[in-house]
Specification:
Blueprint (H helix, E strand, L loop, with lengths): L1 H56 L6 H10 L1 H18 L8 E5 L4 H12 L3 E6 L7 H13 L3 E4 L5 H10 L4 E4 L13 H21 L5 E7 L23 H20 L3 E6 L2 E2 L8 H10 L3 E6 L7 E2 L2 E2 H14 L16 E6 L5 E2 H12 L4 E6 L14 H7 L7 H16 L2 H11 L1
Parallel strand pairs: 1-2, 1-4, 2-3, 4-5, 5-6, 6-11, 7-10, 8-13
Antiparallel strand pairs: 9-12
The structure holds ligand UGB.
The ligand O=C(O)[C@H]1O[C@H](OP(=O)(O)OP(=O)(O)OC[C@H]2O[C@@H](n3ccc(=O)[nH]c3=O)[C@H](O)[C@@H]2O)[C@H](O)[C@@H](O)[C@H]1O binds next to strand 8.
Family: Belongs to the NAD(P)-dependent epimerase/dehydratase family.
Catalytic activity: UDP-alpha-D-glucuronate = UDP-alpha-D-galacturonate
Keywords: Isomerase, Membrane, NAD, Transmembrane, Transmembrane helix
């Protein structure tokens, strides 16, 4: 009995022990499972966050094939695309009745930023596109992007030559208009990097037109040509009727080529196209490669500046045009642009084709530009007067704007001293040079 009892007690002990051990094993394995699933969850979350970040802020740089592959296999990726598309749609949606839906190329550029802001402020939908290249300090472009972002303008980072990207944008948004401002700018840089002008101003423009002509509906397009197309023209002031077949720089030649390409796409596909010939645009958030901008910098830093004169010793002059006047011209051109007549790559009838000068109608010698800056900066410039190098420059520009006035009441209102004052105020604010200017102001007094 005792034996049986003892045996029974032993058996029951060993059963209990076995149960206890199995409990402990279960607890441990659950803990292990919990720990590993936590790890897995965290890793997945991290990957998802990285993908969301990449596709929200950096969608275009990834290879398209990579997109498709990942898209097919990842739930997280599709939600990242969702976030990107949401941003694209949100930015493009007009906030006023009958508002425009505008794709602004070169939106992080000087004119692009100002136009995007003006369109957004009046209730139009605006989506930016910019490749943020390093032709000049990209941090200035990033600062413009940050400003636009505060006003709900989203800039897609991508290149004009990326056809799948452009097609994707047109899949997501039915743009009514394109304001095409992306370009390789600068007349003198064309001798250093000629290919960049062909890539952006010709190939990029054609790529954009190819996508636009196939879109349904086709958008109306307003784009930036240049006063430089007048080249060696000697008739003054420059009228749209004057000859433009003698460009003095490759930059000018690519802009002139753009005007001819515009004619072709209008003729074959019924795209509504308006080219705007900008005359030396200046102002706050301007381009550091332009003379008024780097003269300001160099004068403040006590460096000498080259002031060009013609071969026969005459002053070089420009019809400097203030950015706000240019913005009004761009918006006027957009508002009066008729609809394209084609759809899905087929022309259905004749469409509008226009070219306008947008200038200030009042040329100012470069020497005068320098003395206005000297006054505003309270600093004497170290001027080095030299003959204008033959690297693309023209001696003189002067716009006749009667056509733009007739068609959309374009009337420039800012003279050079007023516009430069606004520029210098922005410049010292942005680059933090107020102290220096103030100190010099005190010393001069
Ligand atoms: O309207 C345009 O279609 C172009 O305008 C602008 O070209 P430009 O009018 O040449 O402006 P910008 O370089 O600021 O030179 C201004 C003046 O300073 C003189 N200049 C220049 C440099 C220098 O070192 N010294 C000098 O005297 C120079 O001789 C000139 O007289 C845009 O850059 C260009 O992208 C395009 O849009």
């Amino acid at each position: 009995m005792m034996d049986r009892m003892g045996c029974a007690a032993d058996t029951s002990k060993s059963i209990k022990l076995e149960r206890y051990n199995s409990y402990i094993r279960r607890v441990n394995s659950t803990k292990l499972l919990n720990a590993s699933s936590k790890l897995l969850f965290r890793a997945t979350l991290l990957v998802a966050l990285i993908l969301v970040f990449i596709f929200t802020f950096n969608y275009p740089p990834l290879a398209d094939t990579t997109h498709r592959h990942l898209h097919a296999h990842s739930h997280f990726l599709s939600s990242a695309f969702g976030a990107w598309e949401k941003q694209v749609r949100h930015s493009s949606t007009p906030r006023r009745p009958n508002g425009l839906t505008v794709l602004v190329t070169g939106a992080a550029g000087f004119v692009g930023t100002h136009c995007s802001l003006a369109l957004k402020k009046r209730g139009d939908g605006v989506l930016g596109l910019d490749n943020f290249n390093s032709y000049y300090d990209p941090s200035l472009k990033r600062a413009r992007q940050a400003m636009l972002s505060k006003h709900q303008v989203f800039i897609v980072e991508g290149d004009l030559n990326d056809k799948p990207l452009l097609e994707k944008l047109f899949d997501v948004v039915a743009f009514t208009h394109i304001l095409h401002l992306a370009a390789q700018a600068g007349v003198r840089y064309a001798m250093q990097n000629p290919q960049s002008y062909v890539t952006a101003n010709i190939a990029g423009f054609v790529n954009l037109l190819e996508v636009a002509k196939s879109a349904n509906p086709q958008p109306s397009i307003v784009w930036a040509s240049s006063s430089s197309v007048y080249g060696l023209n000697t008739e003054n002031p420059f009228s749209e009727l004057h000859r433009t077949d003698q460009p003095a720089s490759l930059y000018a030649a690519t802009k002139k080529a753009g005007e001819e390409i515009a004619h072709t796409y209008n003729h074959i596909y019924g795209l509504s196209l308006t080219g705007l010939r900008f005359f030396t645009v200046y102002g706050p958030w301007g381009r550091p490669d332009m003379a008024y901008f780097f003269f300001t910098k160099d004068i403040l830093q006590g460096k000498s500046i080259d002031v060009y004169e013609t071969q026969d010793g005459k002053q070089v002059a420009r019809d400097f045009t203030y950015i706000d006047d240019i913005v009004k011209g761009c918006l006027g051109a957009l508002d009066t642009a008729e609809k394209s007549t084609g759809s899905g790559g087929k022309k259905r009838g004749p469409a509008q084709l226009r070219v306008y000068n947008l200038g200030n109608t009042s040329p100012v010698p470069v020497g005068r530009l320098v003395s206005i800056l000297e006054g505003l900066l309270n600093t004497k410039a170290k001027k080095h007067v030299i003959k204008m190098p033959s690297n693309g420059d023209v001696p003189y520009t002067h716009a006749n704007v009667s056509l733009a006035f007739r068609d959309f009441a374009y009337k420039p209102t800012t003279d050079l001293p007023t516009g430069l004052r606004k520029f210098v105020k922005w410049y010292v604010g942005y680059y933090g040079l107020q102290q220096r200017v103030k100190r010099e102001t005190r010393l001069d007094n």
